[in-house]
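Batch 3, record 17
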Amino acid sequence: MRKKIVAGNWKMNTNLQEGIALAKGVNDALNNTNVNCDVIIGVPFTHLASVNDVIDSSKLGLAAENCADHKSGAYTGEVSAPMVASTGATYVILGHSERRQYYGETSEILKTKVNLALENNLTPIFCIGEVLEERENGSYLEVVKAQIEEALFELSAEDFDKIILAYEPVWAIGTGKTATADQAEEMHAFIRGVIAAKYGETIAENTSILYGGSCKPSNAAELFAKPNVDGGLIGGASLEVESFMGIVTAF
Ligand code: PEP
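Prediction for the assembled complex:
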């Protein structure tokens, strides 16, 4: 059975002290709550090692929000997959639309990052999703299919099986505009079919596909009730314990 997962993406928010307090808050809340899904927080690089020290990794997974497309060397300011792994993080968010849009991350670059993550035992949470124009002109299914094929379909079946996908329609990220549960289900079912055609039904059924885009406590349960929606990647609502836990407990 594939895992149900709720993962936070803090983006470039919180200073170190605020981040540690937020991570502790989530960790404490998980100690006092029965949850029916895996829970992960994605935090800035600067916070990883300190956050790792204050959370119970058996209850709360830790993700970086990116990693470099090189292993080591003269790449001033970059943070490599081995560096991320050395902090205790075991996940890395890759291909977020903000990285694609503002930092020019192409499928070619993302393919390299995914490989480096896997080589360093980091589980990629790989984001895909169409922009508004592509939703409106009807090309959204093909766009997402191409994003998956270009960055991931050279992986062996064994490696593909380790990937978590996050469908994040760009028009819904941080806009307050959520995809309807039916829109999410249409895309998630389509993605699962694309995976099945390449890697077979078993791997497709095993792949967790999260929804991201203005997910909040008030809409999480409806989204998560859909058979192909296996959880959420949560931006804004992951920055407060109460709203994040409101989504975690929607399962
Ligand atoms: C995200 O950035 O991954 C995201 C889903 O953001 P938000 O929940 O704020 O729309």
